[in-house]
Design a protein that fits this description.
A hairpin with a 2-residue loop joins strand 16 and strand 17. Helix 1 runs parallel beside helix 5. The protein is an alpha/beta fold. The protein is about 35% helix and about 25% strand. The chain is built from 16 helices and 24 strands. The protein has a 10-stranded mixed sheet, sandwiched between helices.
Length: about 500
């Protein structure tokens, strides 16, 4: 059976390869809500996606085998980008002549088509901006649909199927599948495209920054003349796409030449306030729960999109001031002995810098620990060394864990392409920022619990599970003994 470009209406049993990914989990939930029988497979699914799928009673088969497909007998297989053509279940799909498609194609064909598609793209800030956009529409009574790469606390799900005209989706630039190497966001039929920023990332699929810029260029070109591109004017790489745009080009940023810009920004531990100007005229003073200058830009992008969709400033403000954030985005996991432990998804130097800056503004005057696990392929890249050194200057203490994909660098990319954690440690220590490398997560938790003081803020940053270090730290702070098998080891300074 060939790759299915139009999914038959008769399909009812759908199997997802890589179901534990955030977008694939969203698709699984939407399919189930629409009455499909859903199953899938993955390896080592961790919270929040593991608990999320469990709450939906969607079975997740551990590992990948042909037997899973033979038992489930799917009428359609959605192949995630975790699967190469040699992947056991992808190969079995071809061998068994099962109809298959990609995750972005399935979402568009079954759910987005016929709605106004609002696609939020950019190297950083996609999840926050997408969630905020969806919530502002929801708070205004527009009943949108949405898919986001996290779990917004306002919705407590990473998808929503509404009856309104809008579908808001996080537009990931990562590749679609083994049979479609293009970025996911090209499949969502954007009517409103937000381009937040462009930086080098995903080094496993993009050769360099220019390759990523070209991917975004394709997205911009696809926006029709009657539709809109909302572009970050503070980012020169985004602005370089201006001449390729056929749709209405709307800019946001701090520069007064933007279509919408902010002035008189005020940052407090409780909120961020700023005055928005629209096409040169003072418009409205907004207040948001999100901290940091980067979140002013995220808010401006959403405000512009909401205005173009017909919302009043009062309707927009209602959503801004009631937005509760996203799990694993500056999420407070707990407080013990006066020490606040926070979980965040940041893994790129720019994301780390903006996250730490936001923490500084939210917790002024408090000592800030930065714990970091280089989890993704890109986060371990050699060219990011100087970026990490600069970013971690926002912290008072730094602890860096092991490079998750070290073996992959050794066998596939070469260790010369991998960053040197000792180099980062030595540089930060020389600059007066106490820094350690600790390869064991239990030892890391021991160190933090022993040395943290009341009012300290511990910010743990990783694109993965980080070995559950958040809960380990909180347990140690409560004085609970280490769980069975935990031991102190692997400390380097």
């Amino acid at each position: 059976m060939p790759h299915v470009k139009q999914i038959p209406e008769t399909v009812r049993r759908v199997y997802l390869i890589g179901i534990g990914g955030t977008a694939m989990a969203s698709l699984a939930g939407m399919l189930q809500q629409r009455g499909y029988e859903v199953g899938g497979s993955d390896e080592h699914v961790y919270p929040p996606m593991s608990t999320y799928l469990e709450s939906l009673h969607i079975p997740v088969l551990e590992g990948y085998t042909k037997e899973h497909l033979e038992t489930f007998r799917p009428e359609l297989v959605v192949i995630g980008n975790v699967a190469a053509i040699t992947h056991p279940e992808a190969a079995a799909t071809l061998e068994m002549d099962l109809p298959y498609t990609s995750m972005p194609e399935a979402i568009y064909q079954l759910f987005i088509k016929g709605k106004h598609s609002i696609v939020v793209s950019g190297t950083h800030g996609k999840t926050t901006t997408t969630s905020l956009m969806a919530w502002i529409l929801e708070a205004a009574g527009r009943d949108p649909s949405m898919v986001v790469g996290g779990i917004p606390l306002n919705f407590d799900h990473n998808f929503k199927l509404g009856n309104g005209a809008d579908f808001v989706i996080e537009g990931d630039e990562y590749n679609t599948s083994f049979f479609d190497r293009g970025p996911k966001f090209l499949h969502y039929g954007a009517n409103t495209l937000i381009v937040n920023n462009i930086e080098f990332d995903h080094a496993d699929i993009y050769a360099d920054l220019n390759a990523i810029i070209e991917a975004f260029r394709k997205a911009v070109v696809r926006v029709a003349p009657a539709d809109a591109i909302i572009a970050n004017s503070d980012d020169s790489k985004v602005l370089s796409l201006r001449n390729d745009a056929r749709g209405r080009w709307v800019t946001f940023g701090w520069d007064r030449n933007c279509d919408i810009f902010a002035t008189e920004a005020e940052f407090t531990p409780e909120a961020t306030s700023f005055t928005a100007w629209w096409q040169g005229k003072e418009w409205f003073r907004f207040r948001t729960t999100l901290p940091g200058r980067h979140n002013v830009l995220n808010a401006l992008a959403v405000i512009a999109a909401a205005r173009l969709r017909g919302l009043s400033p009062q309707e927009i403000q209602k959503g801004l001031e009631t937005f509760r954030g996203i799990k694993r985005r500056m999420e407070v996991r707990g407080e013990e002995r006066g020490v606040t432990v926070i979980d965040d998804f940041a893994h790129h130097p720019t994301a780390i810098a903006t996250t730490l800056n936001g923490a500084r503004r939210r917790y002024p005057g408090r000592r800030l620990w930065a714990l970091f696990e280089p989890r993704s392929i890109s986060s371990g890249r050699k060219e990011f060394e100087s970026g990490y050194i600069e970013a971690f200057h926002e912290a008072d203490r730094v602890v860096i864990g092991p490079i998750f994909h070290r073996d992959r660098y050794a066998t596939r990319y070469g260790l010369d392409k991998m960053m040197s954690i000792p180099t980062i440690v030595d540089s930060l220590n020389a600059d007066g920022i106490p820094t350690q490398q600790i390869d064991d997560f239990d030892a890391m938790a021991d160190t933090v619990a022993e040395e943290a003081k009341p009012d300290d803020v511990v910010l743990a940053m990783s694109s993965g599970a980080f070995g559950g270090v958040h809960e380990k730290i909180l347990r140690r702070l409560r004085g609970e003994r280490a769980a069975s098998g935990e031991q102190r080891a692997g400390v380097k300074s």
